[in-house]
Amino acid sequence: MKILAVALQKEGKLASASFELLQAAKSVGGELTSLILAENAKPLADELAARGGGKVVAVSHPDLKFFNDEIHVKVIKELIAKYSPDVVLGIASFYGKALFSRLSASCGGPMVSDVSQLTVSDGAVVAVRSNYGGSVLSSVGKSGDGPFFITIRPKIFPESNDGAGEVVEETVADSAYEAKMTVKEVKSESAGTVSVTEADVIVSAGRGVKGPENLPMMQELANSLSGALGASRAIVDAGWIPYSHQVGQTGKTVNPKLYMAVGISGAIQHLVGMQTSGTIVAVNKDKDAPIFNIANYSIVGDAMEIVPALTKKFKAELKGE
Question: CA-based angle 110:254:215, to the nearest 5?
C-alpha cells in the first residue's frame, strides 16, 4: 500500500498536524511518502524527514508561499500521477478541507473527511468518522477508481517524533502555477494568539460572560494556561468576537487535551464541536445546564467571580507560589 501524506505550512512553518498525519500513516503501515509545498520547501522537508516522513517530496516555488488551492491542486495532481499513491492523507483544517475536496474531484477519487481512526481490512484502508453529533461511528471504505482521499481530524493522533526519512526535491510544469487568482498577502485575524484548531487547551466563552467587555478576562484565563480562546455561536452572531474563534457544528471542530466552557449552556450544536476533548471543565450558574452532562468537572457559580479566581490560581502555579 502506498500512502501520500500532504503536509501544510503557514508563513514558512509546518502545521503541527502535519506530524500527526505521519503517525496516522504509520498506524496502517505501507510505503509512506510525504509532500510539502512552499516557497522554500527544503528546510521543511528536512524536518518532516527527521520526524519519520519516509520519502519526503519537496516542491519549492515563489507561487507556493501562500496557500492557493487552485495551484496546490494542480501541483499535487501532477505528483499523484508520478507516485501513484493508493491513499492520500491531509489535515481536516480550513485549508485542508478546501484543498482535498477540490483535489478529490480533480483526480476522480473518493473522499472522506474529519476521520478519527484508520484501520485495515483485506489489505485496504478503512476510515472511521463520527456522524449525527458523535452518536454514530461510520466505517468508510474506498469504492471506485483513483486514490482514496482522507482528511484527518487534528489532535486525534499523536505527533510522529522520529523515524527514517529522505528528501527528494521535485519540480512540476510551469503551467501548474497558472491560476485565475493570485494571493498577494495573508493577514491573520488573531495575530499573536493560539489557533483553536491547534491548541492543547481551549477556554471558550458563551453568553454567560455577559458582554464583550468581559472577553479580555477570558483571554487572560486562556493565556494563563497557554491556551486559545474559543466561543459559542451565540456570541459570534452577537458580534462580540470573530468567527475564527467559534467552536461547534457551524464553527471549528476541536479536540484539545483540556476544554473549559464558561457560560455555555451546552446546546447540541456546540457539543458536536468539542465533546471528544480529553478533559472538559464547565462553569455555569445554572446547575441544570446540559453542558454538565458531558463535563468531567463542573463548577456551578458566577463566571465573573470564578474566572478571575482561576486565573489568579493558574498564574500562581506558573510562578511556583
Answer: 145
